Structure formats: structure tokens, C-alpha cells
Amino acid sequence: MKITVLGCGAIGQIWLDALARQGHEVQGWLRVPQPYCAVNVTDTQGNITNHTFVANDPLFLARSDLLLVTLKAPQVSPAVKNLQSVLAAGTPVLLLHNGMGTVDELRDLQQPLLRGITTHAAMRDGTVIKHVAAGVTHIGPVSRESAALSALADSLHQALPDVAWHDNIASACWRKLAVNCVINPLTVEHDCQNGALRAWPQQIATLCEEIAWVMAREGEHIALDNLRDMVYDVIDSTAANVSSMLQDVRARRQTEIDYITGYLLRRARAQGISLPENTRLYDMIKRKESHYARQPIGSGLPRSWQ
Ligand code: NAP
Ligand code: PAF
After folding, report:
1. Is residue 303 scored above 60 in pLDDT?
2. Nearest CA to 117 among 146, 137, 91, 87?
3. Rounded to an integer, what distance in angstroms lies between the CA atom of residue 172 and that of residue 139?
4. What is the pTM of this model?
5. CA 38 to ligand 1 centroid distance, Å
């Protein structure tokens, strides 16, 4: 297949590397106008690969069989909208990111749209992307046009296993959202690794109650005990991780809060429910973002996110 990967950071580079190894023709799409994209990946076994791929070629994009979007949530819809007129009408667009809400922002996209979440872990270390832990990528359709594209999961699975197809991807996204709503802002509040959150069981219980309430109203019933167990499983299996939100705050970058807790609060508001503890954490993260947006490192000038 011919595949364009939009966003060549940690997750984008492990996909570019894996897809190229599998014999797919790939290009990267970057924020900066540059005709090549350097990919340096250390795989989970410690093997290093360095490639240089074509980047930002509109002809390649127009002929692509898939646009794989590996951006952070706030970057997704502006970047996809920017490319939609070049993409062929039938080219599937797969959004692979944490959080929810981008599908609503892209509801007018004519191309078949798919959503995905992943438990692979990758991080930048200088100029190298370290694929820290293998995981599972769950994908599925979010438009009528993409419902018949389950064969895509098989092709992606050959390149970077495991990939699982879900006819109802919203359920998997809600479960991942629930985990992120608890772990991400709490690790910022307590400035700690994921595993240390076991010291705040009451806060975790309150957040889970609020989240389960919204999920039930969304038709995503989950027993409170199951939700709490799921959160503690991730806390334990990622105990040594610094959550992506805490990494963003430490680096004074925009976080994904508007697509994580922000999305939960938007759904709660639509249902007439108030969520005091999630609201408090959301406001805390937004205060931090606005503080460092006004006082960026190494500059006296305000910084725009775009
Ligand atoms: P990342 O390393 O920050 O990669 C995002 C890339 O997109 C960056 O290279 C960024 O370039 C680029 N970019 C920003 N705006 C762009 C634009 N308009 N056009 C093209 N490229 C643009 O993030 P990531 O860790 O790969 O995460 C991607 C998504 O996967 C997030 O939602 C994250 O939460 C999720 N996720 C990540 C992991 C993980 O282990 N990393 C695991 C599970 C889920 P600049 O830096 O130059 O702006
Ligand atoms: O955003 C993150 O950091 C991850 O999704 C998770 C699962 C919370 C582990 O750190």
C-alpha cells in the first residue's frame, strides 16, 4: 500500500519504520515544509534503524491508500482539514490519538474516517525514538463509508502487531478516555509517576464515579468496580511512566486536556450533569497551560499554540 503518515513524532515514526519494513511505500507529512523526513527508531529489542523517507509530497498524498494521522489531539482536525482537498475521496483517514472529540470536528470530511487507540509506548530520546513497549492498536469505523474497511486491520497488523478491528470502536475509546481522565491530570496535580497514584484512592474513586455516570448516559455502561480495576491495572502496568500530560506540562507544551477531561465535561454538560472533581482538575491544567503560554521558556513574548 501507499501510506502517508501525518505527524512524524514518537508514534508516527514507529509506524513509518514498521510499514516500510513490511514493504509498504510510505511518506511522512510534517508541520515544516521539508521534502524528507528522518526516522531513527530503536525497537523493543534494542535494534536501531535509520531511514530517510520522502515528506510532504502532494502527488504521493493524492495517490495514497491510507492517511494515518499520528498527531496529538489538538493538532488533528486543523491538519486533516488542510489536506482533505488533496486526498482522493475514497482514501481512508485513520486517527490514532488519545482523547475524543476530533471525530465531531471532522464530521464534514468526505473521506472514510476511522478512529484508533494504541497501547504501544514510544518516546523521544534526543534524535532517536525509543519504542519502549509493544502494545495493541484498536481501530474501527466512525462513518458509514469506513464500516467495510476491516481488511485494513490485517494489513496494519502485519506491520506492527497487534491490531484489532472493532465494529464499535467508541466503546474502546471511552474506556481509554476514562483511564486518561483519571491518570493524566492526577499525575500533574501530584507531580508523580503513574504508579505513585495508588496513594490517592479517594480521589481515584470520586473521579471514577463521575466518569461512570457520564459513560452510562452515553450508552457505555461500566460497573464502577470494573472501571476502578481498569484504572488500577493501567496504574500498575505503567507504574514507572511519566504520563504524557505530565511530560507536556514539564515541557510547557499544550496538553491534550481539552480532548480528555474537556471532552468528558462537554458530554456531561450536554446531559445536564455536573462533575466537580473532573472540573477542578480540568481548571487546574488549563491554569497551568495559560500560565506558561504567557511566560514561555526563553522568551518574553506570548506564544500561540498553532
Ligand atoms: P509527538 O511525539 O508529539 O508527535 C506528534 C508529531 O506531530 C510531532 O512530531 C509534531 O511536530 C508533529 N506535528 C504537529 N503539528 C503538525 C502538523 N500540523 N502537521 C504535521 N505534523 C505536525 O506525539 P506522540 O507521542 O507520537 O503522540 C501522538 C498521539 O498518540 C497522541 O495523542 C498521544 O497521546 C498518543 N499516544 C502516544 C503514545 C506514546 O507512547 N508516545 C502512546 C499512546 C498514545 P513538532 O514537534 O515539530 O510540532
Ligand atoms: O497518556 C498516557 O500517558 C498514557 O495513555 C497512559 C495510559 C496514561 C500511561 O502513561
Report:
1. no
2. 137
3. 9
4. 0.96
5. 15
